[in-house]
């Protein structure tokens, strides 16, 4: 993970419809070509949550091309090597995950599931925006790490610490 190499990061949630989708889009934006965001789930939904896509659009981020994916897509031979794998929901953090090729740095960055929030659409959109803001803050901290200069153990500790903030 050095120099000009693009680092791939996979965000996992059970359904890959809200948090992980927003994190994927946010990392692509915040990472400015240094990071490539990906997302997946153990039991993917049929499609991203419409409010997740609306939240990205409200942040003036692209929304095309997102779909709910199974995490197995990223554990197959020939899949892009993941340098980082983050769980964004407690369920995904407690599941047995595949063995990721290349032994990526892993961390749990649990955030509340905005799709479970009950209320009027306006209130629900505010909850999606609140969760996106939390994810964006963590992703900005992650993006500011001097990845190429840190040894693996230090990097692992710093990435895990970001998830506790």
Overall description:
This protein has 165 residues and is of the alpha/beta class. It has one domain (7-160): Response regulator (Rossmann fold), CATH 3.40.50. Helix content is 37%, strand content 12%. It contains five helices and four strands. It has helices at 19-30, 50-58, 90-94, 121-143, 152-163; strands at 7-12, 35-40, 84-87, 105-108. The chain is globular, with a radius of gyration of 15 Å. The mean pLDDT is 92.
Q: Return the CATH class.
A: Alpha Beta
> What best-fitting shape do the alpha-carbon axes yield?
globular
Any idea what the radius of gyration is? 15 Å
Average pLDDT, to the nearest integer? 92
Topology readout:
Layout: E1 7-12, H1 19-30, E2 35-40, H2 50-58, E3 84-87, H3 90-94, E4 105-108, H4 121-143, H5 152-163
Parallel strand pairs: 1-2, 1-3, 3-4
Helix pairs in contact: 1-2, 1-4, 2-4
Task: Summarize the model shown.
This protein is of the alpha/beta class and about 160 residues long.
Note the main attributes of this structure:
single chain; 165 residues; alpha/beta; Rossmann fold; 4-stranded parallel beta sheet; 37% helix
């Amino acid at each position: 993970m050095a120099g000009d190499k693009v680092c791939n990061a996979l965000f996992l949630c059970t359904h890959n419809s809200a948090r992980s989708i927003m994190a994927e889009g946010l990392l692509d934006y915040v990472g400015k070509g240094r990071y490539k965001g990906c997302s997946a789930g153990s039991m993917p939904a049929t499609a991203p949550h419409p409010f997740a896509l609306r939240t990205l659009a409200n942040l003036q981020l692209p929304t095309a091309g997102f779909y709910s994916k199974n995490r197995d897509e990223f554990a197959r031979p020939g899949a892009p090597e993941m340098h980082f794998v983050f769980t964004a929901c407690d369920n995904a953090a407690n599941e047995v995950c595949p063995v990721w090729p290349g032994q990526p740095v892993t961390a749990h960055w649990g955030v509340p599931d905005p799709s479970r929030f009950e209320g009027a659409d306006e209130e629900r959109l505010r909850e999606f925006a609140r969760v996106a803001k939390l994810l964006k803050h963590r992703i900005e901290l992650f993006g500011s790490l001097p990845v190429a200069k840190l040894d693996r153990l230090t990097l692992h500790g710093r990435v895990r610490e970001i998830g506790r903030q």
